[in-house]
Structures are given as C-alpha cells and as structure tokens.
Specification:
The complex is a heterodimer of chains A (114) and B (114).
Chain A: E1 3-6, E2 11-14, E3 19-21, E4 23-26, E5 31-38, E6 44-50, E7 56-59, E8 62-65, E9 75-77, E10 86-94, E11 102-104, E12 108-113
Chain B: E1 5-7, E2 10-13, E3 19-24, E4 31-38, E5 42-50, E6 53-57, E7 64-68, E8 74-78, E9 87-94, E10 104-105, E11 109-113
Classes of the chains: A mainly beta (114), B mainly beta (114).
Amino acid sequence: GDSVTQMEGPVTLSEEACLTINCTYTATGYPSLFWYVQYPGEGLQLLLKATKADDKGSNKGFEATYRKETTSFHLEKGSVQVSDSAVYFCALSDRGQAGTALIFGKGTTLSVSS
Amino acid sequence: DSGVTQTPKHLITATGQRVTLRCSPRSGDLSVYWYQQSLDQGLQFLIQYYNGEERAKGNILERFSAQQFPDLHSELNLSSLELGDSALYFCASSLGPPGTDTQYFGPGTRLTVL
C-alpha cells in the first residue's frame, strides 16, 4: 500500500540555520503531497502542498518540490527561527481512491535554539 | 484557526466506559475525516464521511463507530474503552468529494483512559 517515509528526528538547529527534512513516498496512483506542522499542544496545520509533479509548494519561507522521478517531497527553509520549533509531518493523498485518507509519515521534531 | 471545531478538548475516563467525541467541520465543507494520533502508531486514518454517507474506513476498531448528521457535524463513538485507546483524536474536513482537495484539521480531543 501507499506509504510515507520521513527522516527520523529530532533535528536540532541554531537560529538562522538551513533546514532540510527528507520525505519520500510510495504510491500506486498520482498523489497530492502535503506538509503539515504541529506546534506544541496544538492540532495539525497545513504548511504547504503540491498536487502534481514538479509543483513547488511554499509558505512562511518553507518550500517543497514534488519530484516524481525520486518520489520525494523534501521540506526546506533557508533560515529557521525559534518559532519554527514543532513537529513536521509529510503526507500523501491518493486522488485515485474513492475515499481518500491522508497517509502520514511518523513526523520529524524540529528544535531551534537562539 | 482552521475553522474545524472539536469538543471536548480533554476527556478522562475509565476502562470499559463509552465516550462520544464531536466535530463541526468548516462552513461549507461536506467531508469529515477522523484520525487517531498515538505515540506508538503515529497518525492513523479511522473513517471518513461525505455528505452523511460513510466513504472509507481505515484502521478503525469494531468498538468504534461514527456518523455524520444532516447538519454535517460528526460524532465518533468509542466504547468498551481500553488503556490503549488513550490518544489524541483529530477531526478534519474538506470541501468536496474525497480526493479533490485539502483537509483542514481541528485542535483535537485528548482522550485518557485510566
């Protein structure tokens, strides 16, 4: 079945450092890809998405490009802030299925210190 | 704020009991999804409704059931509770038929079974 694999955390960075969180997927159809973020004590917030190959999603300085050839959707940010400390989830949604659930990776915890 | 509301925020109960979690989707959204987040299983899809009808089932136990009402709110019923049911339960909603658009998550209900 479809699956998402994320790099294991935690990831610990200093403020203004560059961030990359790796995400690869396995899917039989043509998935949409998402990054969600969960701040401490809160629910999941959509960070960005891409619906087809070569699309780039971006939001709040974060970017991810849908790479069909490498089945990847890595999350990047050029300069992280303390406020970016959270758990990041990569997810896919297979539009080919009648009832479409999101399939999540296990999440990557990011901790940014000043 | 995603516009998805969930009540209660916290729920503490005993083994063997039954609880009901409630979700109101974003205004205009017809699809409702339920997910369970636990430390060992991560984020897992439970069940999905579209305009009052069940559309997909995931790893939902037989002790769990859900429904979506004519006003589109949804309830997740958990019965014969076990310690292992302790988790964060999220509701998400999306506008149209499954697979066509983004899911927006509520803040979650934290269930503790003692």
